[in-house]
UniProtKB/TrEMBL annotation:
Its biological purpose: Bidirectionally degrades single-stranded DNA into large acid-insoluble oligonucleotides, which are then degraded further into small acid-soluble oligonucleotides.
Region (Disordered): 1-31
Biased composition annotated in UniProt, kind: Low complexity: 1-10
EC number: 3.1.11.6
Domain called Exonuclease VII large subunit C-terminal: residue spans: 146-364
InterPro entries attached to this UniProt entry: Exonuc_VII_L, Exonuc_VII_lsu_C, OB-fold_nuc-bd_dom
UniProt-recorded name of the protein: Exodeoxyribonuclease 7 large subunit
Keywords: Cytoplasm, Exonuclease, Hydrolase, Nuclease
Domain OB-fold nucleic acid binding: from-to ranges: 31-122
Entry annotated with the keyword 4Fe-4S: no
Broadest EC class assigned to this enzyme: hydrolase
Length: 425
């Protein structure tokens, strides 16, 4: 049966001047009141159902609660109403971000055309089930290596710009700013305000993280919240956020401020701070402590330098007090005598060597002169050449008419052979 066919279901009497929705035509339309009444009567036949979801809004008006539930695995929402008569039967600590199951029955408000669900019972989802799912995800991410210390980045010693992701006007924001500025007054923040619980938490934190991570001036990012019960912190265990933090290029500090049952963000972050105050102290160095360290190092350097100079002065005085430096003339005179003796000995050795070389040269010259043809020529002998310098040793080699060259001790002369051979020649 369709909604329009349900018009015949008994209910408030329809207006006399209106046709049933199923019988409507362009020339005979139904009325808004009759259409809404038909829808209400159809929806009234639905049974009560139990539904699981997360509370994303919770508004109290005149004792009644107007709220919204979000599916825990998607972005689907429903509107719910809790009448004042039902409120005593549900937990008094219900709040935005809580994971609950509720008994609801569909309701359609005829006058305003609003569709919602009326709650008859509501309770928290067992925390044990949530923690079990959380631990399974923790084990999976650990197996993937997202929690390994080797992939975690070191924080800068003195960040020039700190990215802060936190709730607007929250105590966490005040604690981080106050403690950081007390430690280093020149510290600079770029703050992104986000919802820190409820259905807007994860998308807004992801967007803020992406923005700050892309900013080259941001040296470190702090995600801060002032603690809370495990259910309100579920957004900081969302797998999308955990993977985004692991993929970020900027070091991330988790400062959720929850010691027990800590969210997965604490495991994947490069540094886990127990509170926002602790995050400020661990990210920003204390200017007073650093000045004290610098003063201490200066004092140590001055002491070491003074000791070194004093030691060197003492060594210099010790060297200057030695006799050789107090009166260097005797040693110079002694060394001068030794140099003179060595010079004289060297000069004598050189002279003896030169004289011996002269004698050997004279002997060689005499031997050479004795063997030289020049000595023979000097005694009146001559050398006869023909045909370009060939020396004649046989008269038969100079027939008549042959030009000859006769070399004497001094010079040479031209001659012509007559071919006659002397007896006994």
């Amino acid at each position: 049966m369709t909604v329009f066919e349900a018009a015949a279901v008994p209910g408030e009497p329809p207006p006399a001047d209106s046709v049933a929705p199923r019988d409507s035509r362009p020339d005979a339309p139904t009325s808004v009141a009759r259409l809404n009444g038909t829808i209400r009567d159809f929806i009234a036949r639905w049974n009560t159902v139990w539904v699981e979801g997360e509370i994303t809004s919770w508004n109290l008006r005149a004792g009644n609660v107007f709220a919204r539930l979000k599916d825990v695995r998607s972005d689907a929402h429903i509107s719910i109403r809790i009448w004042s008569s039902v409120r005593p039967r549900i937990p008094s600590d219900l709040a935005v971000g809580d994971h609950v199951v509720a008994a609801v029955k569909a309701d359609y408000f005829v006058k305003g055309g609003d569709f919602s669900f009326i709650v008859s019972a509501m309770k928290h989802v067992g925390l044990g089930d949530q923690l079990e799912r959380l631990e399974k995800l923790r084990a999976q991410l650990r197996q993937e290596g997202l929690f390994d210390d080797r992939r975690k980045r070191a924080l800068p010693f003195l960040p020039h710009c700190i990215g802060l992701i936190t709730g607007e006007k929250s105590d966490a924001e005040k604690d981080v700013h106050r403690n950081a500025e007390l430690r280093w007054p020149q510290v600079h923040f770029r703050t992104e305000h986000v919802a820190v619980q409820g259905d807007r938490c994860v998308p807004e934190v992801l967007a803020a993280l992406q923005k700050l991570d892309a900013d080259p001036e941001v040296d470190v990012i702090i995600i801060a919240r002032g603690g809370g019960d495990p259910q309100t912190l579920l957004g900081f265990s969302d797998e999308r956020l955990i993977r985004a933090v692991a993929a970020a290029s900027t070091p991330v500090v988790s400062a959720i401020g929850h010691e027990n049952d800590h969210p997965l963000l604490d495991d994947v972050a490069d540094l886990r701070a127990s509170t926002p105050t602790d995050a400020a102290k661990r990210v920003v160095p204390d200017v007073g402590e650093q000045r004290a360290i610098v003063a201490q190092l200066r004092a140590r350097a001055t002491t070491r330098l003074t000791q070194r100079i004093s030691h060197d002065i003492a060594q210099l005085e010790q060297l200057r007090s030695r006799p050789v430096l107090r009166s260097p003339d005797p040693i110079i005179e002694t060394r001068a005598q030794e140099v003179w003796l060595l010079t004289s000995r060297g000069r004598d050795t050189v002279h003896r060597g030169v004289d011996a070389a002269h004698r050997a040269t004279a002997e060689l010259r005499a031997s050479l002169r004795a063997l030289s043809p020049a000595a023979t020529l000097a005694r009146g002998y001559a050398i006869v050449h023909r045909d370009g310098g060939r020396i004649l040793t046989d008269a038969a080699d100079a027939p008549a008419g042959v030009d000859l060259t006769v070399t004497l001790d001094r010079g040479s002369l031209r001659a012509r052979s007559d071919g006659e051979i002397e007896e006994g020649g």
